[in-house]
Amino acid sequence: MTTILASCKQTRFHLLDDNPSSEVDVDGLGIVVTSSAPAEDVNKFKVKGKSKAKAEGRELISDGHLRLKGGIHYGLLGRNGTGKSTLLRAMAEKLIPGISHATRIAILQQTDEEDGPGGNASLKLGMSVLESVLSSDEARNEAVRMADFLSKSFETENPLEPVKAIRKIRYQHAEKMLFLAHKNANLKSGARGLQARKLLKEAEAKLESTQEMVAQEPDSIDADVIQTDTQEAVEMLQNLQSQLEQMNLADMEKEARRILLGLGFTEDAFGKKVSTLSGGWRMRCMLASILIQKPDIMILDEPTNFLDLLGVVWLENYLQRLREDSETTIVLVSHDRDFINAVCEEIVILRDQKLNYFRGNLAAYEQNFEEQKLYLGRMKEAQERQIAHMEASIQQNLKIGKKTNDENKLRQAKSRQKKVDDRMGLQVSATGGRFKLNRDRVGYHLSSRAEIEVPTDEKGATMSLPAATELRFPGPLVSLEGITFKYKKDDRVVLDDINLVVHIGDRVGIMGLNGSGKTTLIRVLNGQTPPTKGKVSTHSRLKVGYYGQHSVEELQERGGGEPGLTALGLLMAESEGSLKEGEVRGLLASMGLQGRIASDVPVAKLSGGQLVRLALARIVWSAPQLLILDEITTHLDFHTVTALATALSSFNGAIILVSHDRFLVRTVIEGKRDTEHKLDEDFEGLEEEEEEETKSRRRSVYVLKAGKLNEQTKGVEQFEQSLVKRVQKMLVA
Asked: What PROSITE patterns does its record include (predicted)?
């Protein structure tokens, strides 16, 4: 069991803040993850004066500053494993002390834990899709429950029923406040802790008094008390009914239908039970449940994973409109660069256990990062040359001064040495102006200026693919001629007269909406499913590397069945002696699985991104001439997607890529260097092919629609523009 321990610097204000807020400002944030910890250990992890109790476990964030402004859409960046999802979960469960318990937070989180936030347990499996979405707003559900409870008390002939009802509601509220007071007292110490413990005693006394009132015999209640309690029940019922009228169920249902249609559901699917849906459609239902709530803070962890490109474009437009019409703060994690760029106004970077902020979208951040790296790099080089010159001058002055007893030379050497020690470093202030000691670093005596730190690229491990095995004679790798496919004789045509020829070095991208038949086409092309009509021809020496949508799940299942299985052991077994241990280690290292990760960490404990790398290693160890990749980016962060794009760009075999990721298709298939997103220097695209005409490849993007494979003359942009027009019509409707 994983336990999250969170701490922060405490304030004497808002000990029990009842005001909901879409803003968060938490300083000194620390988050530690432990594999298992008793409940009493959690209470020990709190701030005491200036020292912080150390908790055993992995520290993800140390002395960070979590700052979210109301109504702003943030993109959270960080490599796989840095703690992004853990931070989001800590926020959603309000484990971070500085987040008000009254703040409404809704989270979509990629998790396999059914009882976790964002897990399937929060879906009403027994309800229909529409009913489940409408019932997702817990604040509204609580208001409905209390209103129904009070209404029923007034429907009886017993005049004491409303009194009992209001007293029970008071007791439930007192229970909740006692829980919060306990939590608050455990997180505070010193004078603030003393004040928190006073509030705890008050909450305990309040619970005791409300409990006594609930248990009071009806005959012993005064008439005046009955009248007062009854009046309070009437006023509360009126307030609740007023709140529910403002929520307007009819408008909510209209909005829920609009969201579900945008996410790909049909009208016929609204009445289906949630329990009958696949995992991908359940996550869409969960996303709809989050969007309908309009919470103070909305957390979306990889919301595009189960959406086709139409759903992604719709969600982009929906969140952009939400930015204009709502004060909801959004925190978004996504591997889709174009999606982050379109939705987010500010970027939060989780790196080296700290949170850094940039005002602007992802493209602006990357451009600023490169400019800062170049500017500071040149500044540091120039200063290092200046220091080297000054140190040579100091040595010369010392030598001459000691030899001739020249005090001026010695003083000059001492003065220059002081300048080297104290005056070198960053020459500009945080605001961009000239550095001034008495303004910019007040109180710093040992080092007057901050050192020049040149930013380093945050790209994680690089990836490289082995070269394809040479063919002994030329010819197409695979050829589809007049392919038609139906699952059953009377079913609709899934593939209709498909013709496709792929040669060595070709780049073929296949796009389309969910259910259009892309995976069926891949299975026919790969020889897994025979066509109803037509011919599939392959080169006699062809070796295919196939990455399917469920490759990661297959590895997880195998790892669960063999607890001791490692990546190294798996590949050694599958290569059946064709590769030596050193070669397997080298291959895994080229995929980003180095050292002990490959040989010591069980497959069952590898992260999603690491499993993608292992799945890739499984299909490329035999050096295939054709790679067929079906939705390979699902478990990757955007840094790894960039590394993957670079590795695929230089692969000398053929690639057939099925993906909704516009960036990956644009770079790998079309060979374009994005103007908004920087690629690695090793990326090989159209520019390199133009320099060496002999290396030019066939590059084609197809869209599968109504069984037909249509080539897009303008590539991804053409398909995207057609979807944008369709989404705009949907939003207007």
From this structure: ABC_TRANSPORTER_1 (PS00211), ABC_TRANSPORTER_2 (PS50893)
